[in-house]
């Protein structure tokens, strides 16, 4: 039985995984991100398969959040997100620590990767054409392609100060090969909706322009 079955047990497994992912993100933000040696140990796992020598020391930080007998795709997602979090540019690490403070005070609005991309465009930190092409490429690929290409986009987003919802990303990466179309549609929907909202606030009609001229 897969998580696509819609069963209560599948939903419980997903909720339990998201809880472990959130706990891991909080641990990394609180204990690892500003500790150079520990951060480097997790960052070294970026782009490597679970169990490869470059990942050995990362397990010291993430193993407490991995369920016994978890599927390989889930372990890969936890490891990849932990490595991306620890590989973010130095100037934005404290922002992520501050985000942990906010989350402890109560639930925060979450956004998909598509929402983060839209935010970067709206802030003029990245061009719409560029990020759209990257997002489309990600959405076309399988899990191997996702793990290979995603770190570069995430690093760029964090480099310009756009927050990434790490817990959500663990869940999406875990389910990618079994529910890719649904997840990709969610990313693209939130990306284009974010751009539409920006356009609506910026757009003025010819009548509006004429009215403003009359009042001048």
Task: Give a written overview of the molecule.
This protein is an all-alpha fold and 216 residues long. The chain contains 10 helices and no strands. The chain has helices at 8-32, 36-43, 59-62, 72-86, 93-105, 113-122, 128-140, 143-159, 166-202, 206-215. The longest helix has 37 residues, at 166-202. It is globular and about 45 Å long.
Strand content: under 5%
Return the structural class. Answer: mainly alpha
Taken in chain order, the helices and strands follow as HHHHHHHHHH
Task: Report mean pLDDT, rounded to a whole number.
Answer: 88
List key phrases describing it.
mainly alpha, 0% strand, globular, 216 residues
What topology does this entry show?
Blueprint: H1 8-32, H2 36-43, H3 59-62, H4 72-86, H5 93-105, H6 113-122, H7 128-140, H8 143-159, H9 166-202, H10 206-215
Give a brief rundown of this model.
The chain has 216 residues and is mainly α. It is built from 10 helices and no strands.
